[in-house]
Amino acid sequence: MLLGVLLGLVLGTAAPASAHTVLRGADPADGSVLRTAPRRITLVFTEPVGLPAGSFRVYDPGNHRVRTGPAGHAPGRSDTARVTLPGGLATGTYTVAWRVVSADSHPVSGALTFSVGERTAAPPVPLPDRTENRATTALHTIARCLAYLSLALLLGTAAFTAYCRPPASARLRPLALTGAATLGAATTAGYLLRAPYEEGTSPATALSLSALAHTATTRPGLLLLARLALLLLAAGCAALLRRRRIRPPRRVTLAATAVLALALSLTWTASDHAAAGIQVPAALVSATLHLLATAAWLGGLAALLRTLRRAPAGGLPASVPERFSRLATVSVTVLALTGVYQSWRGLGSWQALTDTAYGRTLLAKLAAVTALLLAAACSRTWTRRAARGPVAPHLLRRSVLAETTAAVLVLALTTLLTGTAPGRTATRSAPPVPAPAALPTASVTTLPFDTGAPGGHGRVQITLDPGRVGENSVQAVVYGPDGGLAAVPELRVTLTLPARRVGPLDTRLTDRGGYWAADAFVLPSSGTWTLKATVRVSEVDQATASAPLRVPNH
Fold it and tell me: What's the average model confidence in pLDDT over 444-456?
């Protein structure tokens, strides 16, 4: 039942991953008009990025693919992506579609345009076949969820067995073996899906030899291979000792288990949010302790639940739940300290707690943790009452089952949290990279909007070219709550000149597959116009925003 709830939550929320790095600038700049054709395209990001196959695709004014050189980094700059262009580019507007992998292992994509000599009607942005593949994203997220669950089950069972010392009747070895086997399968699936996830392609490409070889050269791929190697090594050692009937000293077993737990945890934290951003060394330590404490508490719950179910008729020795209560208390303390630090590091501001997807997911996780703590307090009450005698299993079973249910939800939300852009990144803005000498730019207006519904806010960037009296082209791009490009079912932009009672004039924008545009719109007179945009984000939710727009004669 719990596994079904988990998979339902993952499938119900599977969506394109939010950008985990932000495009800080581009050369040529987005929307610029250059006097001469550039020799290369350079993108600068807020953190180091990886370059999957097909990182750049450039299209000429006729929507034909331009042959480019291989993608690479600028010398000594891992936070850049660069591609060389052929000579003799024709006059007109070019579209650049890009896709990179952020330092915390999540793919990020986008598009921009630049023009040589003069602007022409830009074709639809060719992104449909390069955006997130929903099947790949869902399968990759499920694999990550199962990996978290199985790691908690494996390490938590080991910690429970070592510290709480349950009776032999509990038979916890099958629980640990289930965790290890599921972790191995989920890690293998994660490795196979890594290349399709980075490139936004179908799961059918997972077994491509070139894709598998490329994954082996990336940091996420190497960490997944390291995790598999650790599991195989541990399984081999355990099988050898069992075959030869060797029982190492307890201290040796505990030390080996602790080293394995630490190494396995590092294969997660070294490729997630902790590996990018500010204070990376401290973040890695905090994230590793957070993961180990989570496994000890939540995985230990599963072991305790099994122990209660298999308790002898006389009841469970009171020392077992008492020891687990102490283990859980230490785990909760570590989780609280590291959680506060990681929340501060990920959010960056109080506003990001409600204005970003990361902050809202964090609030949901905190609510689930609160429910988990309440159930744990109930279990602790039963434990204290039975401190002087055997514990009747059925008295604890319900509260522990409630804890386990909340624990699964916490782990699912943790997985979603690692797949969401940190609030500090989503709200970050930095000065753009200076563009080459360009012709006068068009008029650009940004309008914030808010429908009042959850996730129904963002901004619309509207460009009028040349932004003067006469014929203009109009382009509009909608950005969602997390700062990434957003698709909306309807966008209407009008202009009104109140001083002369002209308008509203409808620009008649059409959806061009990633942005909205009108190739020809006439502004009949100069003056201060009112630019108004109506954004519909769902069947019933829409918002209207407006701003003054100065239109000169020349």
Answer: 82
